Amino acid sequence: MNNNAYLKCIDPDCGLEYPIKSRNIECERGHLLDVKYKKTPSPDLKELFYNRRNPQGNIFNESGVWRFRELLNFCEIDTDNKDECSKYLVSLDGAEGRQSKPYHMSKVADFLGMNQNCLWLQPEGYNPSGSFKDNGMSTAVTHAKLIGAKRIICASTGNTSAAAAMFAANENMDCDVYIPAGQIAPGKLSQAYQFGAQIVQVKGNFDDALAKSLDDAKNQDGYTVNSVNPFRIEGQKTIPYRAIEYLNWNSPDWIVYPGGAMGNISSCGKALMELYEWGWIKKIPRIAVIVSEGASTLYDLYNGKFEGKKLRWNKGKPDTELIENYYTYLDRNGIRPQTKATAIQIGRPANILKGLRSLEFTNGVVAKVSDAEMLDAMSIVGLNGFDCEMASGASPAGIRKLIGEEIIKKDDVVVGILTGRQKDSSLAVDYHNDPANLFAIPPRG
Fold it and tell me: Is 160:154 a contact under the CB 8 Å cutoff?
């Protein structure tokens, strides 16, 4: 180890640091951690990354995550040494992120009212487990392997459990999946079973399952792989890497994500901060976070819909009391997150503070959309020949809303992230069986 990589608390007034082999997900004062690197990567690496698109039999060049391994080298290995890569880096035969890149979708652009050449949508559903989670899970499980962990733990409404169980099975690790009883799509849950995970049902919602999983990980020697794990964030940074690389390292005007636990927002913001600091990009894209109306925590707090105060990162001094007051309000009134888009049915985003940091750095916005709007957007994506789950529909639905509000301009260059593939078949079937739906193609008798 050459001590280039380390962990650091995200609170500027705290700044506690830990060695890279620490399994802490937060500092001793309760703040989340970042993976940090002391050396600035050379922009000459851009050409190396491009050349690796011809993998020449190397699965780590094939991988959409490990193709960028010099930017994620927390294992501090010789990245040109295939044997060292094989020893340390966790990969599903190079499949994670391999097919991920932005595409033009003309029907979606027309529906959104955008210039077709300005809209890019990046499907992450072609990952082996069917969602973006494989990007971050490959790096989280790599760190688990580095420190000798034998059992990984996660809470999930579906996608996380599939990715965690898949990589655990591939690395011969145990995997415990905490789920909110009765609130997970069967198609997603079946993957976790198939990969040999131990399912732990928790009474309540995702937030309750996450709290229970974190407590058990701490007390039962488990390794947490939810997005509060800073190494998950490292792998998910490659989503914007691939998008910006595809645009020849020219930043788009906007990058748009669905918002759940805010891990994607955190990772995108961290990627953009680093790329800008290194001089790899000259312009900072704005981030738009799109949440469900039924799980609108970030929207309400960010836009001043609760107590009339707008929650901000505030240079590392966010009003955490406002967050706690909001959660108390939810509990007192029995308000639980409720949306058919179960992937973003989260009332207490675990990465809300990192998400706020990303929004501040990028001058970002937060919008909310209805279930009906997400289903319409999911369906028009399908009419372009791409499969995405309902939560992914939040991205195009949110772009449409922000265009209507003239926040996004019709000729802005926009990259929308489609986070996962459809695994709950009943949603699409029910949608098309109802002739009242905008893009329904009901069956004929």
Answer: yes
| Residue 169, token pair as written in the block | 């099975």
**pLDDT greater than 60 at residue 1:** no
Domain count, the chain: 1
pLDDT, tens digit, 9 for 90 and up, residues 324-350: 999 999 999 999 999 999 899 999 999
pLDDT tens for 360-410 read 999 999 999 999 999 999 999 999 999 999 999 999 999 999 999 999 999
Position 383 in a domain: yes
Closest CA relative to residue 79, chosen from 91, 96, 67, 90:
67
What residue numbers bound the domain in which 289 lies?
Answer: 106-127+232-433
DSSP letter (8 states) at residue 66: G
Contacts for 434 with CB less than 8 Å, ≥ 6 apart: 440, 442
Among residues 155, 158, 143, 106, the alpha carbon closest in space to that of 420 is found at 158
Distance CA 243, CA 236 (A): 12
Task: Report the pLDDT averaged over residues 309-332.
Answer: 97
What one-letter code names the amino acid at 4?
N
The sign of the CA dihedral 75, 76, 79, 85 is: negative
Is 80 among the domain residues? no
Collect all residues with Cβ–Cβ distance below 8 Å to 293 and sequence separation of at least 6. 339, 368, 369, 370, 371
- Locate 216 and state its tokens: 């058990």
Amino acid 205: pLDDT: 87
